[in-house]
Amino acid sequence: MGHHHHKHPILEEIIEITGQDPALCYQCGKCSAGCPVREFAECAPNKVVRYLQLGMYDLALESKTIWLCAGCLTCSSRCPKNYELASLMDALRELAIKHNKKIPEQNVYKFHKAFLEPIRLFGRSYEIGMLMGYKFSTFKFLQDMDLAPETLLFKSKMGLLPHIVKNSDKVKEIFRKTKEAE
Amino acid sequence: MKTAYFPGCSMAGTSREFSSSLKEVLALLNIELNEIDDWSCCGASSAHVTSHLLATALPARNLNLASQQGYDEIFAPCAACYSRLLMVSREVNNNKKMAAKVEDVLGEKLLPTPNVVNLLEYFTQIDKEKLAQLKKIDLSGLNVACYYGCLLVRPNGINELDDSEQPASMEALVSITGAKPVDWNFKTECCGAAHSIPHTNIVEILSKKIIDDAVAHKADIIVVGCPMCHSNLDMRQRKIKKDYPDTKETPILYLTELLGLSFGIDYNKLGLNLHYIDPIKLIEKRLEKEAVK
């Protein structure tokens, strides 16, 4: 299998994570035609794949598109080659973080980090903790404050205290070992 | 078949009404839910954005807990939890290398994975006659847009119940109540999902399109089966209306709330009082009109 040695390390990693080679894509553009965030991204999703096919890895890894992907799976569902583009978007975000690439959508990244931190600590998501974490990391203290009294007091739609899993150490361990393995 | 219940984090928080309406409806059917003991978060839409291994290990812990506790099926009413649990069970079954990595992270051997079912599969499995017998109030003044969103039907082939482009299982369940499902175009379009906080504008634009299409096809309400869709369409709707005043106020109900209404369950017990867009006034108006006819 000599030709494997010629693959770029980023491409190797993409194939390792997704189990598919971006070369599978024949650029029909059906993914981009059905993509709900296409109108908000500077670069169509099939173009991100094209960058990879041409070896222009940084253009893919530093694109806004990978962070705007909402994970709706329309592309993966409709692809005539059964290429799972949504999984590729996940892999590219993971690799962009791992290789310290420029992340043009800082707030999206900060949101996901804020969402995961209470899960690491308590084992379950904790909406108020997540929102506080997000507000502190983005300085968007006033966002959605109009919804706060109703949500917290009248409807009790967010628990004031987190639910803590009995074996929350087990979940912490999952986070620690996953990080270690990367 | 021994079925475990995986509530997921939203059921205790922003989608409390989904949880209470589900339990109320199942109580009438004499079905008790058995929660997986010590379940933890599936990582939702955030873990798979940052680490494939983390996004696999978090749901795998729950799949394995259910198996260890003797269950062979998991019912996950939240569409996002369902999607994560199902995708991970497929991954660990088809990818031996990944399964080994997950075993290492969890520090335990993976048992055979339980079958994972979503809200629509779960209710479709219940005898339709039994559901029909519970009907006390005929909802036939009400036009309903059945909104599936993304994760109940995608990726293509995710379940045998439905087609990923033209699903119909929710319409079949809604019809039991007498309400009329409308034919519309945005059943499976995305509401913007987790962008609700970092890109509220994207969620507003996408969710408005969904509401507008439902209204254009004469729907009075939109019925959903996903906490994230519900929060984007209901909680964000006032902001949508503020930014786009032509938006027609449209209540968003969980499927279980609609079933509960027709089974005569009290509004507050179902959680209809917890909505941002009040569904009660509109529903009463529609039903009165029907009664007068």
How would you characterize this protein structure?
The complex is a heterodimer of chains A (182) and B (293). Chain A has 182 residues and is mostly helical. Helix content of chain A is 55%, strand content 0%. Chain A has helices at residues 9-18, 30-33, 45-53, 57-61, 65-68, 74-78, 85-98, 106-122, 127-138, 148-154, 168-181. Chain A is globular. Chain B has a 4-stranded parallel sheet, sandwiched between helices. Chain B has a 3-stranded parallel sheet with strand order 1-2-3. The N and C termini of chain B lie far apart (46 Å). Chain B is 48% helix and 8% strand. In chain B, helix 3 packs across helix 5. Chain B is globular and about 65 Å long. By secondary structure, chain B is of the alpha/beta class. Classes of the chains: A mainly alpha (182), B alpha/beta (293). Chains A and B meet through helix 6, helix 7, helix 8, helix 9 and helix 11 of A and helix 2, helix 3, helix 5 and helix 9 of B.
Question: What's the quick description here?
Answer:
The complex is a heterodimer of chains A (182) and B (293). With 182 residues, chain A is mostly helical.
Topology:
The complex is a heterodimer of chains A (182) and B (293).
Chain A: H1 9-18, H2 30-33, H3 45-53, H4 57-61, H5 65-68, H6 74-78, H7 85-98, H8 106-122, H9 127-138, H10 148-154, H11 168-181
Chain B: E1 3-5, H1 16-28, H2 44-50, H3 52-68, E2 73-75, H4 79-94, H5 96-106, E3 115-117, H6 119-125, H7 128-133, E4 143-146, H8 169-175, E5 180-181, H9 200-216, E6 221-224, H10 227-235, H11 237-243, E7 252-254, H12 255-262, H13 267-270, H14 280-292
Helix pairs in contact in B: 1-12, 2-3, 3-4, 3-5, 4-5
